[in-house]
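Example record

Each entry pairs one chain with its bound ligand, iron/sulfur cluster.
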Amino acid sequence: MKIIPVFLPYAGCKRRCVFCDQIKATGQTKVPSLDDIARIIEEYSRTSNEYELGFYGGTFTGLSEEKMEEYLRFVKRFPVVKSIRVSTRPDEINERKLKILKKYGVNVIEIGVQSFLDEVLERSKRGYTSEEAERACKLIKKNGFVLSVHLMVGLPGSDRRGEILSALRTVECGADMVRIHPTLVFEGTELHRMMEEGEYTPLNVEEAVDICSDLVCIFEGWGTKVIRIGYHVPVELRKYVVAGPLDPSLGDSVRKTTMKKVIERLKPSRIVVPENYLVWFEGAELEVGDEFRFDDLSYADALFFTGKEVVERWLNG
Ligand code: SF4
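Structure tokens for the complex follow.
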């Protein structure tokens, strides 16, 4: 189902994470009123009558209970809104808040974990521990929601080993899907200051593609769908990104590198690929078919065996 995105910049956020600038990242300067939200929904209703509405850009469950209910009650009045997703953070999840989300038919919870490493969380001023993040993810699953985890790569204090550990813990928490966001440095953020003072070195595009492709093997090999790789920063706002792997085609580069790694690892003599995915393969000999086949392996199996090698390298230091 297509999504109607409603951005509530910083709504419900009780602190500012070092990398975050919702205004420069989205171009939206204020939280929309209910009338604004109605206009957004009506605009989308012109092209389809079935949507999931997503509240993004802040910490939905960090809002007061009254405010959460006001938003949820309001959007449910629109017949085109068939389901709802909200984005939030681990320390704003508890049984009581989940009960409210359930009552209004929220289906998906997108949780910005960003990392499962305590040092990284601390240096990014996230304000919770990896244990709390794990507890929140498991509670979301236990209450029957679809769990979407957001992870960032290249945060202060992280490295390749840290990113892989975070990926493994995400899978272990039962995430149904994941968004992978390589860290960008927005002008004027604390991360920008840290970089200027030599406390932080951002990833470049090549490094981000390499690590993200390893993570894709782990996630999709272990059954967690990767629904987004890289931030979408509108063209007019790209001037605010002062460093980091900003590349509008990062997702495609990661997919291509993932497939290259799979082929190098498995050396299949026959590769069958659905037509829509031919773009992921460069220079390989392919056959077009209904589903992926790498000799007798399915797509998930092929990624599993490639991801297993990534994890073995990680285990062996
Ligand atoms: S919780 Fe999310 S929206 Fe709020 S400041 Fe941190 S990164 Fe930004």
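The radius of gyration is 20 Å.
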